[in-house]
Design goal:
- By secondary structure, the chain is an all-alpha fold.
- The protein has one domain: Up-down Bundle (Growth Hormone, Chain: A), CATH 1.20.1250.
- It contains twelve helices and no strands.
Length: 313
């Protein structure tokens, strides 16, 4: 596939925007938890249960998402994924009971699982190999932008039109994105063949599952996602309970906290490219960056003992 530079960056920009929408739709419930819990009478156990059901839906969705993305290809996978999770986000605005919210969270988690493999497929398809690490770094940073924008924008929408409108509005924006994606990708013949990679590449489902590197990456993902999702689901409630912030008051502290994640993603992407360019092996580069990331998590529990919310940030 030969793409003009302008078309390549347009498609990449839309793919980044899809990642932003993915995080915003996921974050609405945590940012608006105090208002929704008061309105519907939720306890902390109820909210924790909803978070667990969302993650369960996502886990189930991830089992099929990669296979589905490979079958659909980059063009249709993006459209189907964003369209499906946008509709599921909208259904939250019409849910009235706890059981209805459970179904909405399961559906949103399962459909949002399309986001990551679709994004990876798109970057691998439209970028040459020497630019992919930068593309992935920018993608991770822009995904964090969704978590940054949610506490800034969502409380403003809820303050004017109510918390239900926040869910419906986010879904409508996602459906508009689908139309923009079809317009931008019109006439593009996506080459969805797997890119050629250097080194010892594992092929075949059985060999993939028997490969030690597969389980090493899986364990690392479990550990990193446990921290990241904890921050996504419970950080707004932490600022509300610990410092009495609510609504628009906690927008800036939350946004700055999530900015650190975006900065880390950008730094990791560019650092990986620099190390590889200087002759470092891919194995050493990955391990060093993951070690540094793990060490950055160590001071997080200290936030429970600080006096001000800026110190917590």
């Amino acid at each position: 596939m030969i793409l003009s530079s302008r078309r390549r960056w347009l498609l990449f920009g839309l793919a980044l925007t899809a990642g932003v929408l993915n995080l915003i739709d996921r974050q609405i419930i945590s940012v608006l938890k105090p208002a929704i819990a008061t309105d519907l009478g939720w306890s902390d156990d109820d909210y924790g249960t909803l978070a667990a059901w969302f993650q369960g839906g996502a886990a189930a969705g991830f089992l099929a998402a990669g296979w589905l993305v490979d079958r659909l290809g980059a063009k249709w996978a993006n459209a189907v994924g964003v369209g499906a999770w946008s509709i599921m986000a909208m259904t939250h605005g019409w849910a009235n009971s706890f059981s209805q919210f459970v179904l909405c969270r399961i559906g949103l988690g399962a459909t949002e699982a399309m986001g990551t493999p679709s994004n990876v497929k798109t970057i691998a398809t439209i970028f040459p190999s020497n630019l992919r690490s930068i593309g992935f770094g920018l993608s991770n940073a822009m995904n964090s932008l969704g978590a940054i924008l949610a506490p800034l924008a969502i409380p403003l929408v809820a303050a004017v039109w109510g918390w239900r409108a926040a869910f419906v509005g986010a879904g409508v924006v996602g459906l508009v994105w689908v139309l923009a994606w079809f317009a931008a990708s019109r006439g593009v013949d996506f080459d969805d063949r797997a890119p050629t990679l250097p080194g010892d590449v594992v092929t075949g489902d059985k060999a993939f599952l028997m490969e030690r590197r597969t389980w090493t990456i899986a364990v690392a993902k479990v550990l990193s996602d446990a921290t990241w999702w904890l921050m996504l689901f419970w950080m707004p409630d932490y600022f509300h309970r610990q410092f009495g912030l609510s609504g628009t008051q906690m927008g800036l502290p939350l946004a700055l906290a999530y900015c650190e994640s975006a900065a880390g993603s950008l730094l990791a992407g560019f650092s990986a490219s620099k190390m590889l360019a200087r002759g470092a092996s891919a194995n050493r580069t990955r391990k060093l960056l993951m070690l540094i990331s793990a060490l950055c998590v160590v001071p997080v529990p200290l936030a429970l003992d600080v006096d001000g919310y800026w110190a917590a940030v």
